[in-house]
Amino acid sequence: MIYCVCVCVFLSICVCVSLSLSLSVCVCLYLCLSLCVRLSLCLCVSVSICVCVSLSLSLSVCVSVSVSVALCVCLSLCVSLSLSLCVCVCVLPCSQSTRVMWTPPLRESFAYPFLVLQMLLLTYILRTRNPSRTAMVALGVSNLCFMLPWQFAQFVLLTQVASLFASYILGYLSGAKMQSILVTHMITLGVCFVLMFGNSMLLTSFYASSLVSIWGIIALRDRFAGVFKPGILTWVVQGLAWVAFTVLLKFTLSNILGASDDAHISALIKSKFTSYKDFHTLMYTCAAEFDFMETETPVRYLKTLLLPINLLVVAVIAGRTVQDIIWFLREGGKTSVKAEECDEAEGTEVAAKAELVYHSLQLVAFAVLAVLIMRLKLFLTPHMCIMASLICSKQLFGWIGERFKLQTTAFAVMAIMAVQGVANLQAQWTIIGEFSNLPQEELLDWIQDHTQPGSVFAGAMPTMASVKLSAGRPIVNHPHYEDSGLRERTKLVYSMYSRMSGETVKRNLMKLGVDYFVLEDSWCTRRTRPGCSMPEIWDVEDPQNSGKTPLCSHMSRNSRPHFTTVFSNDVYKILKVPKVAKDHR
After folding, report:
1. Which residues is 518 bridged to in the sheet?
2. 68-91 as b/e, with b when 16 or more CB fall inside 10 Å?
3. Are 2 and 72 in contact (CB under 8 A)?
């Protein structure tokens, strides 16, 4: 049954993503299908989405129809009240779940649906006492599909492995099952390394090092038990050993392989907690999506009750976990709650707790990521929706009373959420617009008509992506900022927006073999906040020229004698590298 559900999920997501529908719809499907237990409901929801798509209905109608069908079918079949609540809380704050409607090409938008599928399979594995090899293979395939589109997927998977390791330390996950999951991750990482043409960033990541260190700790668990008395001290030692071995192995591998592609990530994290800053970290932190989470987001969570419900659910799960820990410590570690040492009934109960503990820890990890980097609330909001559905769980909230009282409570929660939620939906439905960028179209037409196919271009990374895609011209920099070589090339290119002399910038472009530079005045004057204009960012890197007029300001008025302006409109100006400069390459 679980595999039929996965197939339905996968097909629905492929249809929605390929037709550029909002990822909110896709997430609703995932959350809905992951909680239901009847294949008929899965098929019904999937078919309703496909029908909406095939009839070319508007996005708002697609959301309304699919959610309505899901709710009606759910209630009519009496499958699960939590399904209704999950879909409801996902749709009402949908603007916080994705940015795909504003920036469709984001790599994480293509990767995220596979993460939800992967977590669905992982939940099934945690729930099953002896998962089959087929389930592990399915987990590995979903892992691979998540990692291939998005290179930063390794950091999300690191939080997942850490959450699972914490569950293992607390005794909710058996060593054998944990090792099986680790082996699956390792094999997936190796396959991804090959398919990404030997990307050394994967092998030298904290994620890869963490897999190895956790494997070693579990393999030595008997020695830990022989040296330390079971209890808090053992848990702390295992946690510290994991951190120490992971960091040590990561930097050892980086030095051996000479990899520095992820050095900017360490610098970015460092800049979040200290006053450290350099050119590359400011390129990230000056963008709003890489800044800390804005205060408006928690306020929106509060208005739709998403945050209070999650706090309540996590508090209940944490309370029960603390009770288990206290019971374990009172027994002096003699009575184990570990899954492999329980009988069948107790093992099922421990497995049920394991998935709750894991998802709670994963929620905390996603919250930390979202607070540090606002863009990553893409992972937090949908997971909060999943956790919110647990308010209907008899296992957690059976103390409320009989089934009728629990259902009444759930309906009351949905009614209160709908007050702000309907307003959110109406605000989304009133957004009507179209994309038009006539200046860039003029730029690309001129490039195609007046330059040679082998002419090399440089400029702002987003513009260079368009030049390569639409005009087919060679470029020296593009938005794949994870590559260390590309970061250095981009830094040389962006010296046009510094306060350096024109001769210095010309030599930088000559070194890169550039024939044309696309100058954008907005990059010279744009300032998201104090210290975040391009000239101010360069002042950190090039303090000796601080106070001078930026070179881009001179170029916008008169590009001579260093360059020749060959095209200009309201937004873009193309500067040609002089022939004399070209000959010196």
Report:
1. 459, 574
2. ebbbebbeeeebbbbbbbbbbbbb
3. no
Evaluate whether 380 touches 366 at the Cβ level (below 8 Å).
yes
CA dist., res. 72 & res. 28, Å (int):
15
Instruction: Please say whether the beta carbons of 133 and 154 come within 8 A.
Output: no
Strand, helix or coil at 333? coil
Of the pLDDT bands very low, low, confident and very high (cuts 50, 70, 90), residue 25 is: very low
Reported as type and span, the H/E element at residue 519 is strand 516-520
Question: Which pTM does this prediction carry?
Answer: 0.79
Paired with 432 in beta bridges are: none
Q: What are phi and psi of 480, to 5 degrees?
A: -85, 75
The answer to whether the beta carbons of residues 492 and 511 sit under 8 Å apart is yes
Q: Which of 321, 329, 398 is nearest to 359 (CA)?
A: 321
Give the pairing type, strands 516-520 and 572-576: antiparallel
Cis peptide before 382 (omega within 30 of 0): no
Token duo for residue 38: 């009847």
Distance, in Å, from the CA atom of 469 to the CA atom of 118, rounded to the nearest integer, reads 32
Lookup: tokens for 476: 């020296």
> In this structure, are residues 203 and 253 in contact, taking their beta carbons and an 8 Å threshold?
yes
Amino acid at 77: L
Tell me: pLDDT of 77 over 70: no
Torsion sign across C-alpha atoms 34, 37, 43, 45: negative
3-class SS shares of the chain: helix, strand, coil, % to 5: 70, 5, 25
Amino acid identity of 24?
A: S
Residue 518, CB-side half-sphere exposure with 13 Å CA sphere: 29
Digit-coded pLDDT (tens) for 494-540: 999 999 999 999 999 999 999 999 999 888 888 888 888 899 999 99
- Chain segment 413-435, per-residue pLDDT in tens: 777 777 777 777 777 778 777 77
